Structures are given as structure tokens and as C-alpha cells.
Fold this sequence. Notes:
Elements: H1 2-32, H2 39-42, H3 50-56, E1 59-62, E2 69-86, E3 91-108, E4 113-121, E5 132-143, E6 146-153, H4 159-162, H5 175-179, E7 185-194, E8 197-205, E9 219-228, H6 230-233, E10 237-248, E11 259-271, E12 274-285, E13 288-299, E14 304-315, E15 338-349, E16 355-367, E17 373-384
Antiparallel strand pairs: 1-2, 2-3, 2-17, 3-4, 4-5, 5-6, 6-7, 7-8, 8-9, 9-10, 10-11, 11-12, 12-13, 13-14, 14-15, 15-16, 16-17
Amino acid sequence: xxxxxxxxxxxxxxxxxxxxxxxxxxxxxxxxxxxxxxxxxxxxxxxxxxxxxxxxxxxxxxxxxxxxxxxxxxxxxxxxxxxxxxxxxxxxxxxxxxxxxxxxxxxxxxxxxxxxxxxxxxxxxxxxxxxxxxxxxxxxxxxxxxxxxxxxxxxxxxxxxxxxxxxxxxxxxxxxxxxxxxxxxxxxxxxxxxxxxxxxxxxxxxxxxxxxxxxxxxxxxxxxxxxxxxxxxxxxxxxxxxxxxxxxxxxxxxxxxxxxxxxxxxxxxxxxxxxxxxxxxxxxxxxxxxxxxxxxxxxxxxxxxxxxxxxxxxxxxxxxxxxxxxxxxxxxxxxxxxxxxxxxxxxxxxxxxxxxxxxxxxxxxxxxxxxxxxxxxxxxxxxxx
Length: 385
């Protein structure tokens, strides 16, 4: 069974990579034939690629001289992935239409105001095309130091969850941040940057449905501060970040239901082709959990990236750590008190993060009476506009 599924995974991945490579090669050939490398060719404007033309269709209107509305654009993303899991006594595999979102974003009033509405769909069997909204908010930028956002938005706690799914290097976020049960929520947030210092803070309702919810449950307060330390490390990029969340939990809550308080400390470093994100994450409540997440990257070429990740989770409760919903639970993964996971994969950037292919494998172990070991193989495509 595992050999058949691995061959199927390899065949699907190879087919997609071959098609993508052919499209990319055709685009590169067109660009290369436009001229030589002499001085005359160098001063010519860069030729628009086929991907520039396609993605440019998302811009419905753009006029910087119109101070009432500068831009109106389609937004959205599609993430699809094939997954195969082997727990030893049980296997599972399927194609998962992981995310599909579609919306509009308007930039107005000398670019001070942004309005965004983005719906999400479940394209898997039994799902609905309209499941609700992720984003439905207005953001007013007073200056670089202060932007106020009101409406349904992402409560940005921790590096892992705050990073958009458009940009994350692995298929899924870490096990512990998922155990916080974060999601988009109605609320008010403040954010800004001054010099090397950046900050974020907000208050959010924890009783959420596909839209705004009923505001009958508890609430969460999120605060974050970041500082650029590239000069200290002597690297191209280095950002240290501290996050805190407090949740006034209620039985009606649907998000942030696990912990009363949470903290995160992260460091992101990039030097040349090498990168590393390290994060320590902890949650305190009915059980106390802590996790270490290390995510190194190496840019083999401008198009191909090698990604690794190690996760260590610890809990003071025998069943305090939960397996990943995607997809360890599908093969009977149970709770435990020590979690280890090792991920290795490749990302191939066809059009930057806007269109990329991903493939990877993860091996996880959970200690405890219900714990088990799981091997996961994944391959997929991610696009946003």
C-alpha cells in the first residue's frame, strides 16, 4: 500500500513539475529572444512575462491620480494538496482542497483607507462554495506608525500563525499553535512601525462563526512587539519578536479555547541563501504546554528552496498535546505529553510565492498511552492573487 501511494505521489508531483517547467521555459525563451546583453538591451524596460499579464488581470482599476479610489483589485488564493499518512497499522490518502478564497480590496482617500472583503469556500465533497468570510474589515492608515483596523481580521499572535498561509514554507503550521485554535475574528487592532521598532495589538471576540458570530462568548487580547536586529547579527535580515495573548474563555467560544494565556518569542534570520526561523511558544491554562519550532531554509536556486522543520512539544498533562488535525488524526493519532516532528521538503517558485509547487515528508512521534508514530507524504500547489 505504501509503495503504491508513494508511486502515485511521485507521479503526480512529476507531472505537475513537468507542466510548470514547460510553461516557465516558454516564458523564459520569449523573454530571452527579445534582445542581447549589450548596452542597448540593458536600458530597455523589462518585458512583461505571461505570469505578469495573467496576475495583472486581478487589478480591476488603478489610478494614483484619483484621490477618492486609487485601486480596486480581486484577491484570493487556492491551496490544494495530496496527502498520504502511514501510522503502521492504518494508512490514509486523499486530495485536499485546502483553501479557496475570493474577494475584493479597495484602496481609497490618498491610500489612507483600505476596505477588504474576502470569502472562503470548502471545495471538498460535501462542502459549500460560500462558507463565510475570513476578512471583512476597514483599515485606516494615519501614518507608518499607526494603522487602525476594524472588523473581521486575523488576530496576529505568534510568528507561525501571523505569517500568511500564502507565505508559509511548510504545508501546515506547527502543532502547538494549532492547539490554541486560532482563527479570523471580529475585533479592533492597532499596528505600526517606527524605525526598527514595530508593534501590534488588538481585542477580538472569541465566539465566531463563518461571519461575525454573536458576541456572546469571551474575548482575547493580543499584543506583539518586534525589533530589527540585523545590525546586531550582521546579517541581511534579522527580526526578534515577542507576543502575548490573554483569553477570557467562555463555554460559547469557538476560537482560542485551550489556554488562558500564551507567549511567543521568535527570531527570523536571513543571510544570503540561508534562513532560519526559531520560535518558542507556550500556553498556560487547564494544562501547560511549551513548544520549540526550528525552520531552516536554503535557496538552492532562485526557483528552488529546501525547507526543514523540527518541532518539540512538551506538556505537564499526559494528554495535553493533540495530534495535527491535518493529517495525523486521520490515521488514529492520539494525545500525549511529548511530541516530536521532523519535516523535509522542497518549494519550487514558478511565479514567486504567487504560484509555487510544494513537496515534503514529515515524521512525527507522540508519547503517551494513545500516542503513535506517523509518516506523512505531501505534494501540492499554492497560488494567490
